[in-house]
Amino acid sequence: MGSTDVGERGKKSMGIGKRIMGAATAAVMMFSGFAVATTSVSAASSPLVSPEWSEDAIRNYAINLADEHAGSSTMTKAKNLVATVAQQENSGATVLASYPQFGSFFVQAASKSFAKDYAAAAARNGIALHSVGDTRQSPVRSDENVLQNGISTYGEDTFEGTKDSEKATQQLTYQDGLWGIKAIGGDKAKQVISKNVKLNSVTVGVMDSGIDERHEDLVGQIDTNASTSCITNGVPDGNASKRNQVDDDFMDSQNTFYHATHVAGTIAGKTYNAGWLTYDNSVNPQAKLANIRVSYHTLIYPEYAVCGLNWSVDHRIPIINASFSVDPWHYWMPNNPTQAAGYEVVLRATEYMQNNNVLLIAAAMNDSQDLDNLATDSKSPNDTGSPIQNRPIVGGQGLFASMTNMPGVMVVSNVQKNANGTFSRSDSSNYGAKGISIAGPGTDISSAYPYEGFDNGWASATGTSMAAPHVAGVASLIKGIHPEYTAAQIKAQLLRQANYKQLSASADGKEYRGAGMVNAYAAVTKNQPKATIASVQYSTNGGSTWSNLRGATIGGKVKIRAVMGGAVTSGAFSGAATASKNGTGTLTLTKDVDYSNVSKTANKTLTVTAYGRNSSKDADDDTTMKISYTVKANGSSKPSEPSNPSTKSHKDTLAVRRGNTYYFKYSISGGKANRVIAYGRPNDTIPVGDWDGDGVDTLAVRRGNLYYVKNSISGGVADKVIAYGRPGDTVLVGDWNGDGKDTLAVRRGNTYYIKNSISGGKADRVIGYGKPGDTVLVGDWNGDGKDTLAVRRGNRYFIKNAIAGGQADKVVGYGKPADTVLVGDWNGDRTDTLAVRRGNVYYVKNSMSGGPADRVIGYGKPNDTVLVGTWR
């Protein structure tokens, strides 16, 4: 668990056998009953194997296949080999839990040489290993001994380890200890939620010491179906008493049995009632909690942690709070044979967790260590009673405190509130410019406490363990508002909305702020599900046919309508009709206008607003669109032509990109840019599309599989962030279903995974077309409002007019095989055609045919990056 320095406890001798020198793949030095490798061995050349012990005892081992995707047959072969090795050793061994999804499993064995013997047997049987080694520096507890012919030499089952923990006190008043909720805007967030925001159901997993499920703040908050205990060999156990530390492992002398209960109370405790006073003591009391116990006597071994991580995936728990470090090594050395197997299996489980859309919120730990520059550790191993002093840990990794670079992990530092009202790093908190993701309140925090400790059921505590649940609670708010969000999207929003300016810089240069203080208020007011405006159109024949109003010239009697969607609850025309909706579905506003008596032609602007669900003054879920059009003097409108809301009424033109600066042209011509903006970073990938269906193309930044979408030609913060596909995918943009909005398609070889909305999740359609090595273009080749594919081979283009496989509908030749080719609607006829680029000269065709260009223009410089779109 995240810990403060309160002194070492329980240094009891355990009679643990010493390692034998030279028994493994690297030379070892002997210190206090365990080994430290003096050289590391690459798993690429041979497996990392923990050294042999000097005496037999019941121990647990992690075995990691070299290929984590080796498959079930290889895994079965590797597991069956355990019994063979045990028979050869004339000893006991059995498989405890296996994880074929990432090529690892745990074994309990009695022989002192099991790791060495198994590695040798695997080599003889053609089973490639990454590592095999014991998960602890002590034998298993007697209640974990599942071997019939072995004897556990664990010693006293009441051994408490030497792991420090955050001490709980009642030095403050309960109300004073709730400062963290206010500091992150949690009090204001609850006011917004009560009036404006409906939260979807969210479960947060608390991987910890076991929640007191009978505490009045937590009764009814526990999702028992998603709860378990992992403290017996890392095998899930649904026994309610086993997962409740107060029942199973009461440790008053250690004063740590409160830990999970305190963490849970901060995330989702119910309102605390103290006589006539009530206190909002949690970030999101509407969330549910999964009680995932992974700690016994403060010790969290690899098999316990892996069990909890895998459990979270199996039970679709989207957010995990991990206010602990994995034992027995405070910081693990990945290439040390003594530690490699335990480290590797936890790393694989964490990667598996993040690949299955679970976000892990981890405490940074409380050693006042620079996570970017680890040096020494004097707390490990913490299960022997004799940790090594000043153990070198350069290149070491904290599990999970050093995982901030993993997409599915956030590392949280501890912030304290100073007497002058400012916020700064708590002295004990770890830090690091790269090592910290985000900061949270963690000093003197009041929360639930088992009644066995304090009769009134609360206490205050300090540590990164108290900071992490503030972040987990805010993550649950984001997930509650955006149930479709992936773990990557939740993380991106937490980082984007964090308040960096709220935190004071460290005078000693110990950078702890990460993205800033976690922000609960922003979670419920910013980046909200938006009301959208799909189209604004007019009709001259009573609504039989409709045309786009933007840029139109109208007169006489006309009917105007606006079609709204998304999270719309009501809408309005400027000074005209209004209507309302319940926040889902489609809302249509109409009004009749008579311009028959207009004496002078004039330009008009209609303001259309779609209002979202959140009526808070700070909410950003409303959408306003200004539509410019022309009214003719004493005239009638041109008869309306049938119109799809998706149809563009403007011509595509060029934009030049230089770094993160964009030079937009509003016409197919040379000369100066009509508009210049800056957006994103110079090395970003930039997709272009009409993301909100307003008829104007805008930019999106792509970083890996995250897309930061703008709905206006401007700089600043993205309007929406989504995740789709994989970081290495080829991505295409098009209006695949003709609804007027561009969305994404992922290409893998000649298979296309098409989405019809700007969102993550599964593809709406999957098709195959062309060959894996083809160059592919996207366009509306027949003017039906839907984008489809064209395959380019040299200077020949094989065009499909439907999202389907099969033969091309048309084949044309244009330009030269080495030409750069652009696609756009260059003349505004609603049909996309080709343009050849040679340097800064563009040869534009207005039809899908060969022959000479219809227009030739020069723009920009020969080495410019060029984008195509309807920019206004």
From TrEMBL:
PROSITE patterns: SUBTILASE (PS51892), SUBTILASE_ASP (PS00136), SUBTILASE_SER (PS00138). Residues 372-391, 632-652 are annotated as: Disordered. The keyword Kinase does not apply. One of its GO terms (molecular function) is serine-type endopeptidase activity. It comes from Bifidobacterium primatium. It comes from the Bacteria. The lineage of its organism: Bacteria, Bacillati, Actinomycetota, Actinomycetes, Bifidobacteriales. The active site is at D208, H259, S465. Residues 201-501 form the Peptidase S8/S53 domain. This is Peptidase S8/S53 domain-containing protein. Coiled coil: none annotated. GO terms for biological process: proteolysis. The chain crosses the membrane at residues 20-41. Keywords: Hydrolase, Membrane, Protease, Serine protease, Transmembrane, Transmembrane helix.
